[in-house]
Amino acid sequence: MKSAYNIAQITAEIQTIDDQFESLRFEQQLRLIERRLHLCAELNAVQSITCSMPPEILSHIIHTLIQDPSTHLTIAPTLFCVGAVCTHWRRTVWTSPQLWSVIQLVWPALVIDDSYAPLKNMVPFAQLFYKNSGSLPVDLSLFSSRWDPTAEQAEELMKIILKNGKRLRSLFVTSLTPTFSASFIRLAYTELPLLETVNVRWDHCPDHEDSRSLFCHAPRLSCLHMTLPDNIFTDKLFSFKIPSNQLTTLHLRGFNPTHALYMLSLCPLLVEFDYSCERSPTGLPNRIGTLRVPVTLTLLERLRWSILKTWLHEEVDGFLLKRFAFPSLQELTWGAVIDDMEIEDCEPFFACIENSLKVLNCYRAQTWKSLDIWKKFDHISELRLSIDRRNSPGFKFSDGVKSLECLTLQPNQVNLLPRLRSLYISFTFSFLFAVSGGGDGYKNESSLEFTIICLLYSRRRTAIDVDLVDDFISLDFDPNSDHWQHYQRLEEFHFEFSDEADGDRKFDWDDFDDYIGEFDEVTRDAKFKRTLLSSFDVMW
Protein backbone atom coordinates (compact mmCIF):
# COMPACT_ATOMS: atom_id res chain seq x y z
CA MET A 1 0.00 0.00 0.00
CA LYS A 2 1.33 3.42 -0.90
CA SER A 3 2.32 5.78 1.87
CA ALA A 4 0.77 9.19 2.40
CA TYR A 5 4.00 10.69 1.06
CA ASN A 6 3.72 8.75 -2.22
CA ILE A 7 0.06 9.68 -2.59
CA ALA A 8 0.95 13.33 -2.10
CA GLN A 9 3.67 13.03 -4.75
CA ILE A 10 1.24 11.50 -7.24
CA THR A 11 -1.36 14.18 -6.55
CA ALA A 12 1.22 16.93 -6.97
CA GLU A 13 2.36 15.49 -10.31
CA ILE A 14 -1.23 15.35 -11.55
CA GLN A 15 -1.67 19.00 -10.61
CA THR A 16 1.55 19.91 -12.43
CA ILE A 17 0.30 18.16 -15.55
CA ASP A 18 -3.01 20.03 -15.36
CA ASP A 19 -1.20 23.36 -14.99
CA GLN A 20 1.04 22.77 -18.01
CA PHE A 21 -1.46 21.08 -20.31
CA GLU A 22 -2.84 24.11 -22.21
CA SER A 23 0.58 25.55 -23.02
CA LEU A 24 1.94 22.40 -24.71
CA ARG A 25 1.82 21.15 -28.30
CA PHE A 26 -0.55 18.35 -29.28
CA GLU A 27 2.12 15.63 -29.28
CA GLN A 28 3.27 16.64 -25.81
CA GLN A 29 -0.33 16.71 -24.59
CA LEU A 30 -0.85 13.10 -25.65
CA ARG A 31 2.13 11.95 -23.60
CA LEU A 32 0.87 13.90 -20.60
CA ILE A 33 -2.61 12.43 -20.93
CA GLU A 34 -1.15 8.94 -20.91
CA ARG A 35 0.95 9.77 -17.86
CA ARG A 36 -2.03 11.30 -16.08
CA LEU A 37 -4.18 8.22 -16.67
CA HIS A 38 -1.42 6.04 -15.25
CA LEU A 39 -1.17 8.22 -12.12
CA CYS A 40 -4.95 8.20 -11.63
CA ALA A 41 -4.92 4.41 -11.86
CA GLU A 42 -2.38 4.31 -9.03
CA LEU A 43 -4.63 6.48 -6.87
CA ASN A 44 -7.66 4.32 -7.67
CA ALA A 45 -5.72 1.27 -6.48
CA VAL A 46 -5.48 2.91 -3.07
CA GLN A 47 -9.24 3.52 -3.00
CA SER A 48 -10.00 -0.13 -3.75
CA ILE A 49 -8.13 -1.16 -0.60
CA THR A 50 -10.44 0.99 1.52
CA CYS A 51 -13.58 -0.67 0.15
CA SER A 52 -13.25 -3.45 2.70
CA MET A 53 -12.38 -1.07 5.52
CA PRO A 54 -15.02 -0.85 8.29
CA PRO A 55 -16.96 2.44 8.12
CA GLU A 56 -15.94 3.30 11.69
CA ILE A 57 -12.23 3.25 10.80
CA LEU A 58 -12.72 5.04 7.48
CA SER A 59 -14.82 7.67 9.23
CA HIS A 60 -12.04 8.27 11.75
CA ILE A 61 -9.50 8.71 8.92
CA ILE A 62 -11.76 11.16 7.09
CA HIS A 63 -12.36 13.07 10.33
CA THR A 64 -8.60 13.56 10.67
CA LEU A 65 -8.43 14.80 7.07
CA ILE A 66 -11.14 17.43 7.36
CA GLN A 67 -9.53 18.87 10.49
CA ASP A 68 -6.32 19.64 8.58
CA PRO A 69 -6.15 23.42 7.90
CA SER A 70 -4.47 22.84 4.52
CA THR A 71 -7.73 21.31 3.20
CA HIS A 72 -9.72 24.54 3.71
CA LEU A 73 -8.84 26.12 0.37
CA THR A 74 -11.97 25.50 -1.69
CA ILE A 75 -15.46 26.95 -1.54
CA ALA A 76 -17.07 23.51 -1.68
CA PRO A 77 -16.73 21.79 1.71
CA THR A 78 -13.97 19.20 1.79
CA LEU A 79 -16.46 16.60 2.96
CA PHE A 80 -18.28 16.77 -0.38
CA CYS A 81 -15.06 16.09 -2.27
CA VAL A 82 -14.24 13.12 -0.04
CA GLY A 83 -17.73 11.70 -0.46
CA ALA A 84 -17.35 11.76 -4.25
CA VAL A 85 -14.39 9.35 -4.28
CA CYS A 86 -16.41 6.13 -4.41
CA THR A 87 -19.68 4.58 -3.22
CA HIS A 88 -18.21 3.23 0.04
CA TRP A 89 -16.74 6.61 0.94
CA ARG A 90 -19.98 8.42 0.07
CA ARG A 91 -22.05 6.03 2.19
CA THR A 92 -19.62 6.43 5.10
CA VAL A 93 -19.70 10.23 4.88
CA TRP A 94 -23.49 10.53 4.78
CA THR A 95 -24.05 8.11 7.67
CA SER A 96 -21.43 9.51 10.07
CA PRO A 97 -22.82 12.45 12.11
CA GLN A 98 -19.41 13.17 13.69
CA LEU A 99 -18.03 14.14 10.26
CA TRP A 100 -20.70 16.80 9.84
CA SER A 101 -19.90 18.29 13.24
CA VAL A 102 -16.79 19.90 11.70
CA ILE A 103 -18.24 22.89 9.82
CA GLN A 104 -15.86 24.78 7.55
CA LEU A 105 -17.25 27.70 5.59
CA VAL A 106 -15.01 29.37 3.01
CA TRP A 107 -15.68 32.32 0.73
CA PRO A 108 -13.28 33.89 -1.77
CA ALA A 109 -11.35 37.12 -1.46
CA LEU A 110 -12.76 38.69 -4.62
CA VAL A 111 -16.42 39.63 -4.82
CA ILE A 112 -17.47 41.20 -8.11
CA ASP A 113 -20.07 43.99 -8.23
CA ASP A 114 -20.70 43.77 -4.48
CA SER A 115 -22.49 40.48 -5.01
CA TYR A 116 -22.96 38.47 -1.87
CA ALA A 117 -23.78 35.24 -3.70
CA PRO A 118 -20.72 33.45 -2.26
CA LEU A 119 -21.92 34.27 1.24
CA LYS A 120 -25.50 33.22 0.47
CA ASN A 121 -24.14 29.93 -0.85
CA MET A 122 -22.78 29.23 2.63
CA VAL A 123 -26.30 29.25 4.11
CA PRO A 124 -27.50 25.90 2.66
CA PHE A 125 -24.12 24.36 3.48
CA ALA A 126 -24.43 25.48 7.10
CA GLN A 127 -28.02 24.23 7.33
CA LEU A 128 -27.04 20.84 5.91
CA PHE A 129 -24.09 20.42 8.29
CA TYR A 130 -26.14 21.30 11.35
CA LYS A 131 -28.89 18.91 10.25
CA ASN A 132 -26.61 15.95 9.49
CA SER A 133 -24.59 16.37 12.69
CA GLY A 134 -27.69 15.62 14.75
CA SER A 135 -27.30 16.91 18.29
CA LEU A 136 -23.50 16.63 18.44
CA PRO A 137 -21.33 19.60 19.49
CA VAL A 138 -19.94 21.42 16.46
CA ASP A 139 -16.57 22.96 15.58
CA LEU A 140 -17.18 26.00 13.38
CA SER A 141 -14.52 27.63 11.18
CA LEU A 142 -15.14 30.72 9.05
CA PHE A 143 -12.34 31.08 6.50
CA SER A 144 -13.29 34.52 5.30
CA SER A 145 -11.59 37.18 3.23
CA ARG A 146 -11.13 40.85 4.04
CA TRP A 147 -14.24 41.59 1.99
CA ASP A 148 -16.85 43.02 4.36
CA PRO A 149 -20.50 42.32 3.46
CA THR A 150 -23.34 44.52 4.61
CA ALA A 151 -25.26 43.60 7.75
CA GLU A 152 -28.17 42.43 5.60
CA GLN A 153 -25.93 40.17 3.56
CA ALA A 154 -24.46 38.54 6.66
CA GLU A 155 -27.71 38.28 8.61
CA GLU A 156 -29.02 35.03 7.13
CA LEU A 157 -25.82 33.12 7.82
CA MET A 158 -25.44 34.54 11.32
CA LYS A 159 -29.03 33.59 12.17
CA ILE A 160 -28.15 29.93 11.67
CA ILE A 161 -24.98 30.22 13.74
CA LEU A 162 -26.73 32.07 16.58
CA LYS A 163 -29.66 29.65 16.55
CA ASN A 164 -27.26 26.75 17.14
CA GLY A 165 -25.03 28.58 19.61
CA LYS A 166 -25.71 26.09 22.39
CA ARG A 167 -24.01 23.37 20.32
CA LEU A 168 -20.89 25.39 19.54
CA ARG A 169 -17.73 23.74 20.92
CA SER A 170 -15.03 25.72 19.08
CA LEU A 171 -14.95 28.81 16.90
CA PHE A 172 -12.26 29.92 14.46
CA VAL A 173 -12.53 33.10 12.36
CA THR A 174 -9.68 34.10 10.04
CA SER A 175 -10.65 37.71 9.27
CA LEU A 176 -13.20 39.44 11.47
CA THR A 177 -14.41 42.40 9.40
CA PRO A 178 -16.48 45.23 10.96
CA THR A 179 -19.83 43.72 9.96
CA PHE A 180 -18.93 40.23 11.11
CA SER A 181 -17.41 41.74 14.24
CA ALA A 182 -20.84 43.06 15.22
CA SER A 183 -22.33 39.60 14.66
CA PHE A 184 -19.44 38.04 16.57
CA ILE A 185 -20.22 40.25 19.58
CA ARG A 186 -23.85 39.12 19.47
CA LEU A 187 -22.68 35.52 19.40
CA ALA A 188 -20.28 36.17 22.29
CA TYR A 189 -23.20 37.42 24.39
CA THR A 190 -25.46 34.42 23.81
CA GLU A 191 -25.51 31.35 25.98
CA LEU A 192 -22.64 29.07 24.90
CA PRO A 193 -22.62 26.20 27.40
CA LEU A 194 -20.30 23.92 25.36
CA LEU A 195 -17.82 26.46 24.00
CA GLU A 196 -14.22 25.51 24.87
CA THR A 197 -11.96 27.19 22.29
CA VAL A 198 -12.06 30.52 20.43
CA ASN A 199 -9.53 31.71 17.84
CA VAL A 200 -10.42 35.05 16.27
CA ARG A 201 -8.42 37.43 14.09
CA TRP A 202 -9.64 40.99 13.68
CA ASP A 203 -8.73 42.92 10.55
CA HIS A 204 -9.71 46.20 12.24
CA CYS A 205 -9.97 47.77 15.67
CA PRO A 206 -13.26 46.81 17.39
CA ASP A 207 -15.13 50.05 18.03
CA HIS A 208 -18.26 48.72 19.74
CA GLU A 209 -18.58 49.20 23.47
CA ASP A 210 -19.83 45.61 23.70
CA SER A 211 -16.52 44.39 22.32
CA ARG A 212 -14.97 44.98 25.72
CA SER A 213 -16.81 42.10 27.37
CA LEU A 214 -16.83 38.68 25.70
CA PHE A 215 -18.09 35.16 26.46
CA CYS A 216 -19.57 35.93 29.87
CA HIS A 217 -22.01 33.01 29.33
CA ALA A 218 -19.42 30.41 28.25
CA PRO A 219 -18.60 28.47 31.44
CA ARG A 220 -16.36 25.93 29.66
CA LEU A 221 -14.23 28.38 27.70
CA SER A 222 -10.59 27.63 28.54
CA CYS A 223 -8.60 28.43 25.39
CA LEU A 224 -8.64 31.91 23.83
CA HIS A 225 -6.57 33.18 20.86
CA MET A 226 -6.97 36.81 19.75
CA THR A 227 -5.07 38.60 16.98
CA LEU A 228 -5.06 42.26 15.96
CA PRO A 229 -3.73 43.48 12.59
CA ASP A 230 -0.22 44.86 12.32
CA ASN A 231 -1.23 48.50 11.89
CA ILE A 232 -3.30 48.88 15.05
CA PHE A 233 -2.50 49.91 18.58
CA THR A 234 -5.43 51.06 20.66
CA ASP A 235 -5.98 52.02 24.25
CA LYS A 236 -9.55 50.68 24.11
CA LEU A 237 -8.47 47.07 24.24
CA PHE A 238 -6.94 47.59 27.66
CA SER A 239 -10.48 47.26 29.04
CA PHE A 240 -11.17 44.04 27.12
CA LYS A 241 -13.17 41.85 29.48
CA ILE A 242 -12.77 38.11 29.10
CA PRO A 243 -13.59 35.22 31.45
CA SER A 244 -10.05 35.41 32.79
CA ASN A 245 -10.70 33.37 35.93
CA GLN A 246 -11.34 30.21 33.88
CA LEU A 247 -8.81 30.43 31.03
CA THR A 248 -5.95 27.92 30.87
CA THR A 249 -4.56 29.05 27.49
CA LEU A 250 -4.25 32.63 26.26
CA HIS A 251 -2.57 33.68 22.99
CA LEU A 252 -2.34 37.36 22.05
CA ARG A 253 -0.95 38.83 18.82
CA GLY A 254 -0.51 42.51 18.06
CA PHE A 255 -1.84 43.78 21.38
CA ASN A 256 -0.22 46.62 23.24
CA PRO A 257 2.35 44.86 25.50
CA THR A 258 1.08 46.66 28.59
CA HIS A 259 -2.42 45.39 27.78
CA ALA A 260 -1.00 41.89 27.40
CA LEU A 261 0.63 42.05 30.83
CA TYR A 262 -2.61 43.30 32.33
CA MET A 263 -4.61 40.42 30.83
CA LEU A 264 -1.92 37.97 31.96
CA SER A 265 -2.20 39.22 35.53
CA LEU A 266 -5.95 38.46 35.57
CA CYS A 267 -5.68 34.74 34.70
CA PRO A 268 -4.87 32.70 37.84
CA LEU A 269 -5.47 29.30 36.18
CA LEU A 270 -3.36 29.97 33.10
CA VAL A 271 -1.13 27.09 31.95
CA GLU A 272 0.04 28.59 28.64
CA PHE A 273 0.58 32.23 27.68
CA ASP A 274 1.82 33.24 24.23
CA TYR A 275 2.38 36.88 23.30
CA SER A 276 4.04 38.45 20.28
CA CYS A 277 4.21 41.96 18.87
CA GLU A 278 6.16 42.22 15.62
CA ARG A 279 6.21 45.97 15.06
CA SER A 280 7.84 49.07 16.52
CA PRO A 281 5.25 51.78 17.19
CA THR A 282 6.36 55.32 17.92
CA GLY A 283 4.17 55.54 20.99
CA LEU A 284 2.30 53.12 23.24
CA PRO A 285 -0.27 53.84 25.92
CA ASN A 286 1.43 52.87 29.17
CA ARG A 287 -0.79 51.13 31.74
CA ILE A 288 1.87 49.38 33.78
CA GLY A 289 1.20 51.61 36.76
CA THR A 290 -2.35 50.23 37.11
CA LEU A 291 -1.26 46.62 37.57
CA ARG A 292 -1.43 45.01 40.98
CA VAL A 293 1.99 43.55 41.60
CA PRO A 294 3.73 41.32 42.32
CA VAL A 295 1.90 38.63 40.33
CA THR A 296 2.46 34.91 40.90
CA LEU A 297 0.90 32.40 38.50
CA THR A 298 1.50 29.03 40.10
CA LEU A 299 0.07 26.91 37.26
CA LEU A 300 1.79 28.52 34.26
CA GLU A 301 3.95 25.94 32.44
CA ARG A 302 4.57 27.51 29.01
CA LEU A 303 5.47 31.14 28.37
CA ARG A 304 6.33 32.77 25.03
CA TRP A 305 7.20 36.48 25.04
CA SER A 306 8.30 38.03 21.74
CA ILE A 307 8.46 41.79 21.23
CA LEU A 308 10.49 44.04 18.95
CA LYS A 309 12.67 46.73 20.46
CA THR A 310 10.67 49.94 21.09
CA TRP A 311 11.00 52.94 23.31
CA LEU A 312 8.87 51.06 25.85
CA HIS A 313 10.43 47.60 25.52
CA GLU A 314 12.90 47.99 28.39
CA GLU A 315 10.17 49.01 30.81
CA VAL A 316 7.77 46.27 29.67
CA ASP A 317 10.31 43.43 29.53
CA GLY A 318 11.89 44.48 32.80
CA PHE A 319 8.48 44.70 34.45
CA LEU A 320 7.64 41.15 33.37
CA LEU A 321 10.93 39.76 34.67
CA LYS A 322 10.93 41.71 37.93
CA ARG A 323 7.26 41.68 38.95
CA PHE A 324 5.94 38.31 37.73
CA ALA A 325 6.77 34.85 39.08
CA PHE A 326 6.04 31.47 37.47
CA PRO A 327 7.26 28.75 39.87
CA SER A 328 5.96 25.88 37.67
CA LEU A 329 7.30 27.14 34.34
CA GLN A 330 8.62 24.30 32.13
CA GLU A 331 8.98 25.97 28.71
CA LEU A 332 10.26 29.50 28.13
CA THR A 333 10.54 31.16 24.72
CA TRP A 334 12.19 34.55 25.07
CA GLY A 335 12.26 36.73 21.96
CA ALA A 336 12.97 40.11 23.50
CA VAL A 337 16.01 42.18 24.32
CA ILE A 338 17.51 41.87 27.80
CA ASP A 339 19.86 44.67 28.66
CA ASP A 340 23.11 43.39 30.15
CA MET A 341 22.67 45.68 33.14
CA GLU A 342 19.22 44.20 33.84
CA ILE A 343 20.26 40.57 33.97
CA GLU A 344 21.47 40.76 37.56
CA ASP A 345 18.30 42.64 38.56
CA CYS A 346 16.21 39.75 37.19
CA GLU A 347 17.94 37.04 39.23
CA PRO A 348 14.80 36.36 41.36
CA PHE A 349 12.85 35.55 38.18
CA PHE A 350 15.51 33.12 36.97
CA ALA A 351 15.93 31.57 40.42
CA CYS A 352 12.18 30.93 40.66
CA ILE A 353 12.17 28.73 37.54
CA GLU A 354 15.66 27.27 37.88
CA ASN A 355 14.50 23.78 38.90
CA SER A 356 11.27 23.57 36.90
CA LEU A 357 12.41 24.79 33.47
CA LYS A 358 12.95 22.00 30.90
CA VAL A 359 12.84 23.80 27.51
CA LEU A 360 14.49 27.15 26.74
CA ASN A 361 14.34 29.02 23.43
CA CYS A 362 16.45 32.21 23.26
CA TYR A 363 16.57 34.61 20.35
CA ARG A 364 16.60 38.32 19.53
CA ALA A 365 19.42 38.88 22.01
CA GLN A 366 21.76 41.75 21.16
CA THR A 367 24.89 40.72 23.03
CA TRP A 368 26.64 37.53 24.00
CA LYS A 369 25.99 38.14 27.70
CA SER A 370 22.24 38.54 27.25
CA LEU A 371 22.07 35.28 25.27
CA ASP A 372 23.99 33.62 28.07
CA ILE A 373 20.93 33.24 30.30
CA TRP A 374 20.78 29.54 29.36
CA LYS A 375 23.67 28.97 31.76
CA LYS A 376 21.31 29.74 34.63
CA PHE A 377 19.17 26.65 34.01
CA ASP A 378 21.10 23.47 34.61
CA HIS A 379 18.06 21.17 34.43
CA ILE A 380 16.89 21.93 30.90
CA SER A 381 16.64 19.04 28.44
CA GLU A 382 16.05 21.12 25.29
CA LEU A 383 17.90 24.29 24.27
CA ARG A 384 17.36 26.51 21.23
CA LEU A 385 19.78 29.36 20.53
CA SER A 386 19.35 31.77 17.63
CA ILE A 387 21.82 34.49 16.68
CA ASP A 388 20.83 36.89 13.89
CA ARG A 389 23.55 39.45 13.37
CA ARG A 390 21.30 41.57 11.17
CA ASN A 391 19.26 42.39 14.27
CA SER A 392 22.08 41.98 16.79
CA PRO A 393 25.19 43.82 15.54
CA GLY A 394 26.88 43.26 18.90
CA PHE A 395 27.55 39.62 18.02
CA LYS A 396 30.72 38.43 16.37
CA PHE A 397 31.26 35.29 14.39
CA SER A 398 33.51 34.04 17.17
CA ASP A 399 30.54 34.17 19.54
CA GLY A 400 28.99 31.34 17.55
CA VAL A 401 32.07 29.23 18.15
CA LYS A 402 32.07 30.20 21.83
CA SER A 403 28.48 29.06 22.27
CA LEU A 404 29.34 25.60 20.96
CA GLU A 405 32.54 25.38 23.00
CA CYS A 406 30.60 26.26 26.16
CA LEU A 407 28.20 23.43 25.39
CA THR A 408 30.99 20.92 24.75
CA LEU A 409 31.65 18.61 27.69
CA GLN A 410 35.22 18.68 28.99
CA PRO A 411 36.92 16.01 31.14
CA ASN A 412 37.76 16.89 34.74
CA GLN A 413 35.61 20.02 34.68
CA VAL A 414 32.21 21.09 35.95
CA ASN A 415 30.15 21.04 32.77
CA LEU A 416 26.83 22.70 32.01
CA LEU A 417 23.47 21.16 31.12
CA PRO A 418 24.01 17.52 32.13
CA ARG A 419 20.40 16.63 31.16
CA LEU A 420 20.49 18.10 27.67
CA ARG A 421 18.85 15.82 25.08
CA SER A 422 17.93 18.21 22.24
CA LEU A 423 20.00 21.11 20.90
CA TYR A 424 19.03 23.55 18.12
CA ILE A 425 21.49 26.19 16.90
CA SER A 426 20.78 28.86 14.26
CA PHE A 427 23.38 31.42 13.15
CA THR A 428 22.66 34.19 10.64
CA PHE A 429 25.47 36.59 9.74
CA SER A 430 25.30 39.51 7.34
CA PHE A 431 28.18 40.77 5.21
CA LEU A 432 27.12 44.36 5.90
CA PHE A 433 27.61 44.01 9.63
CA ALA A 434 30.71 41.92 9.21
CA VAL A 435 32.38 44.88 7.50
CA SER A 436 31.05 47.59 9.81
CA GLY A 437 31.54 45.62 13.00
CA GLY A 438 35.28 46.13 13.24
CA GLY A 439 36.58 43.45 10.91
CA ASP A 440 35.51 40.36 12.81
CA GLY A 441 37.07 38.03 10.28
CA TYR A 442 36.14 34.43 9.70
CA LYS A 443 39.36 32.90 8.49
CA ASN A 444 41.32 33.41 11.70
CA GLU A 445 38.62 32.19 14.05
CA SER A 446 38.36 28.72 15.53
CA SER A 447 36.92 26.18 13.17
CA LEU A 448 33.15 26.15 13.56
CA GLU A 449 32.98 22.90 11.61
CA PHE A 450 35.40 21.11 13.93
CA THR A 451 33.80 22.61 17.04
CA ILE A 452 30.48 21.05 16.06
CA ILE A 453 32.10 17.64 15.74
CA CYS A 454 33.71 17.99 19.17
CA LEU A 455 30.39 19.00 20.69
CA LEU A 456 28.61 16.00 19.20
CA TYR A 457 31.30 13.59 20.37
CA SER A 458 31.29 14.93 23.90
CA ARG A 459 27.51 15.07 24.17
CA ARG A 460 27.26 11.52 22.87
CA ARG A 461 29.99 10.46 25.34
CA THR A 462 32.00 8.96 22.49
CA ALA A 463 35.78 8.70 22.77
CA ILE A 464 37.88 10.25 20.00
CA ASP A 465 41.15 8.71 18.90
CA VAL A 466 43.90 11.05 20.12
CA ASP A 467 45.85 10.49 16.90
CA LEU A 468 43.03 12.17 14.98
CA VAL A 469 42.79 15.18 17.26
CA ASP A 470 46.14 16.97 17.47
CA ASP A 471 44.69 20.25 18.74
CA PHE A 472 42.02 18.88 21.06
CA ILE A 473 43.73 16.32 23.27
CA SER A 474 41.31 17.04 26.13
CA LEU A 475 38.59 15.06 24.36
CA ASP A 476 40.47 11.84 25.05
CA PHE A 477 38.31 10.61 27.91
CA ASP A 478 36.64 7.40 28.97
CA PRO A 479 32.93 7.79 28.20
CA ASN A 480 32.08 4.90 30.53
CA SER A 481 33.75 6.36 33.60
CA ASP A 482 31.68 7.23 36.66
CA HIS A 483 32.29 10.92 36.02
CA TRP A 484 30.10 10.87 32.90
CA GLN A 485 27.30 8.56 33.95
CA HIS A 486 24.95 11.31 35.16
CA TYR A 487 25.23 13.16 31.82
CA GLN A 488 22.44 12.44 29.36
CA ARG A 489 23.36 11.53 25.82
CA LEU A 490 22.33 14.01 23.16
CA GLU A 491 19.44 12.58 21.12
CA GLU A 492 18.73 15.36 18.63
CA PHE A 493 20.89 18.09 17.11
CA HIS A 494 19.91 20.73 14.54
CA PHE A 495 22.34 23.27 13.11
CA GLU A 496 21.56 26.05 10.65
CA PHE A 497 24.05 28.54 9.28
CA SER A 498 23.39 31.44 6.94
CA ASP A 499 26.03 33.90 5.75
CA GLU A 500 25.17 36.57 3.20
CA ALA A 501 28.77 37.64 2.57
CA ASP A 502 28.79 38.02 -1.22
CA GLY A 503 26.73 34.83 -1.43
CA ASP A 504 29.72 32.82 -0.19
CA ARG A 505 28.85 30.75 2.85
CA LYS A 506 31.62 30.76 5.39
CA PHE A 507 30.56 27.45 6.83
CA ASP A 508 32.74 25.04 4.88
CA TRP A 509 30.61 22.00 4.14
CA ASP A 510 33.54 20.19 2.52
CA ASP A 511 35.58 20.49 5.73
CA PHE A 512 32.59 19.40 7.74
CA ASP A 513 32.10 16.32 5.55
CA ASP A 514 35.79 15.48 5.98
CA TYR A 515 35.44 15.64 9.77
CA ILE A 516 32.33 13.48 9.66
CA GLY A 517 34.21 11.00 7.50
CA GLU A 518 37.14 10.79 9.92
CA PHE A 519 35.06 10.76 13.09
CA ASP A 520 32.11 8.76 11.83
CA GLU A 521 31.49 7.03 15.15
CA VAL A 522 29.26 9.88 16.28
CA THR A 523 26.85 9.47 13.34
CA ARG A 524 27.22 5.76 12.62
CA ASP A 525 23.92 4.84 14.30
CA ALA A 526 22.20 8.15 13.59
CA LYS A 527 19.77 9.52 11.05
CA PHE A 528 21.67 12.32 9.33
CA LYS A 529 19.79 14.76 7.10
CA ARG A 530 21.18 17.68 5.11
CA THR A 531 18.78 20.30 3.73
CA LEU A 532 19.15 22.89 1.00
CA LEU A 533 18.76 25.70 3.54
CA SER A 534 22.31 25.39 4.88
CA SER A 535 21.28 23.19 7.76
CA PHE A 536 21.52 19.62 8.94
CA ASP A 537 19.83 17.39 11.50
CA VAL A 538 21.16 14.43 13.44
CA MET A 539 18.92 12.08 15.42
CA TRP A 540 20.03 9.02 17.36
UniProtKB/TrEMBL annotation:
InterPro entries the UniProt entry points to: LRR_dom_sf
Kindly give the Gene3D superfamilies that the UniProt entry links to this protein. Ribonuclease Inhibitor
Name of this chain's protein:
F-box domain-containing protein
**The organism of origin for this protein:** Agaricus bisporus var. burnettii
